[in-house]
Amino acid sequence: MIVGRGAAPGISIGQAFKFREPVLRIEKKPGSGTDAEMARLQLAMDQTRQDLAALKDLSEKNISAAEAEIFSAHQMILEDPELWEQTRQLLEVEACNVEYAFHRIVQRFVVMFESMDNDYMRSRATDVLDVGQRVLLHLQGQSLGSSLGSSLGRSSQLPENAIVIATDVGPSTLAQWLPLGRLAGLIIEVGGRNSHVAIMARSLGLPAIVGARDATHLVADGDLIAMDGDRGEIDVNPDADLTEAWERRRQQWQALQTELQSLIGRRIIGPEGHRPVTLAANIGSPADLQSALKNDAEGIGLFRTEFLYMDRNSLPSEESQYQSYREVLEAFPNHLCVIRTLDIGGDKKLPYFEIPPEENPFLGLRALRLCLKHPEIFEVQLRALLRASRYGQLAIMFPMVTEVSELLEAKDILKKVKNELLQQGHSVAEHIQVGIMIEVPAAAISAEDFAPHCDFFSIGTNDLIQYTCAVDRMNKSLEHLYNAEHPALWKLMAHVIRVAHENQKWVGVCGELAGNPEHARRLVELGVDELSMSAPSILPVKKYLVEAEGRLSDASSPTSSLPSWQASSLPNF
Ligand code: PEP
Ligand code: MG
C-alpha cells in the first residue's frame, strides 16, 4: 500500500492514468537584445492571458464561479510587475534569450514560496509554476492549451474511471479534464492540502491524495487502483478479496454520504430545547464558499482574511478586498458572516511585509497588535469591510485581543473609517456586529470586562490551547502537551460562555476543536451558540450531535433566517 495525505475525501476504484506535464527544455542562448526579447515575452503573456480567460470560463461552466476564481489568482500572478521587471533586469545582465531569463525568475519565485513555513503559501508555488509553464510554452511556440482543442486532445487519452497519478497537476490541467467526466480520483506526489488543485478536488467531491511519494514509479498505466481520499491510502492491483473489501468500503462511504445529505437543512437544537446551535464554516478565501454552501453551512463563522494578503507580492488593494468580502456576504444573504481582520505574525508571514525579528513570534507583534501599530494597513481593510457591509449580514471580528483598551482603540478606528466613508458618499450597513476572538487566557478570564463593548465572542481554541498550556502549536515534539482535553481550557470556555450569556451576547467556537464531534457535543452541552469549522466537518458533526443528543429541528422548520439572538445586534460603534 502507498500512503499519502488525504486531500479530498471519498473512496474510488479505477484505472491508473499516469500524467506528465509537457517537459520544457530551457537552454541559455544569446538573445536578440532586451527590447526584442521582451517583445516576445509580451506576446507570450498576451496569449497566456487569453488562455486564463478561457480556463476561467471553462471552470465556471464545469465547477463553479468560486473555483473559477483560481484563474483570477493566476491572472494576478501573470500581472505581477516583479515577474516582468526582474526578467528585464536579468536579460540586461546576461544578454540571453527571454526563455532562459523568464524561467530563472519563475524558479526564483517558486523557491521563495516553497521555502515559506506556511502550508498555504508553500502551495502557491504550484500556481506560479503553472502560470510560468504556460508562458514558457507559448514562448517556445507550443501552446499548453489555450486552444482548448489541443488540451482536450491530450485529455482524450483519459480512460473511463481514471485515477490520475502525477508528480503534480496544475489547476488548469484539472479544469481541462473535467468536461470529459471520466475522472474518478487524483493522486499527486507533491503538493499540499491547500494547493488549488486540492481545493478544487474537495469542492468537486473528487477523491484526492497528495504527498504520495514515488507513486509515479510504483504505478503503471492501466493498473487497478483503489484509494481512500480521506485516509490517504492507495492499493495498487489489489487481489480479488481486497478489491471486494474496497468495493464494500466504497458502498459504505456512499451510504454515509446519502445519510449526511439527509441532514441538509435540519438544525441542531441546544440543551435548553428551543435555541438552535449554528453550524457555520471557516473559510480562507471566497474560493471556499462553494464547499461551505454544499456542506450546509449556516453562515461563515470565521473568514481568515490573512489569506487574501498571502497569495501575492504586495498588499491587496481596498477594491480587491471589497470584492472578496462582498462575494462572501452575498453568498449567505440570510446568515451572519464573521470576517476576521488581518491576523498575521506568529507562523503567518507576508513575503512583502517585514516584521522585525522576535524571540517569540507567537507572543509578539501579531494580529490586532500589528494592525493597531500599522493603521495604514488596518484602515484599508476596515474601509473594504464597511463598504461591503450593505451586501449581507456582516460581523467584524478582531483577533488576539488581550486588553480592553485594544478593543476600544480598534472600535475608534472603525468608527473614524465609517464616518469618512459616509462623508465620501459611501453607504454602510446600519447593523454590523463587532466581536472579538477569545484566544488569550487573559481575555477569557476577564471576559466580563470585554462583554459590554462587543456583540459576541468567538473562542479560538487553536491559540487558546497554546497560550493556556504554554505549548507552541507548531512544535511537533510537544504535540502530546498541546492538550485539547486540558481541564483549564474547558474551565475557561465554560466561563466565557456563561459570561457571554449573562451579558446577552452570543458566543461561538471557531478553533479546530469545534469540528471534533465529541468536543462539539461537550460545547453544545455548555451552551455554545455557534460552532464554526471547516466545511466538510459540518455534516459529520451534525450527524454525531443528532445521534448523541437527538435534538434536531423538524424538517419543515425554517432554516434560512437569522436566529433572533444573532440578529439582535445594535449598532455599537
Ligand atoms: C484559533 O486560534 O483557534 C483560530 C481560529 O485562529 P487561527 O487558527 O487562525 O490562529
Ligand atoms: Mg488564532
Strand content: 5-15%
Total number of strands: 17
**Radius of gyration from the CA trace?**
25 Å
Sum up the overall morphology in one term: globular
Total count of helical runs of at least 4 residues: 23
Unique ligands: phosphoenolpyruvate, magnesium ion
Low-confidence stretches: 143-153, 555-565, 568-572
**Which class best fits the helix and strand makeup?**
alpha/beta
The first-to-last residue Cα distance is 58 Å
In this structure, how is the largest beta sheet organized? Answer: 8 strands, mixed
How much helix is in the residues? 40-55%
Mean pLDDT: 88
- Spatially, the strands of the biggest sheet line up as 1-8-7-3-4-5-6-2
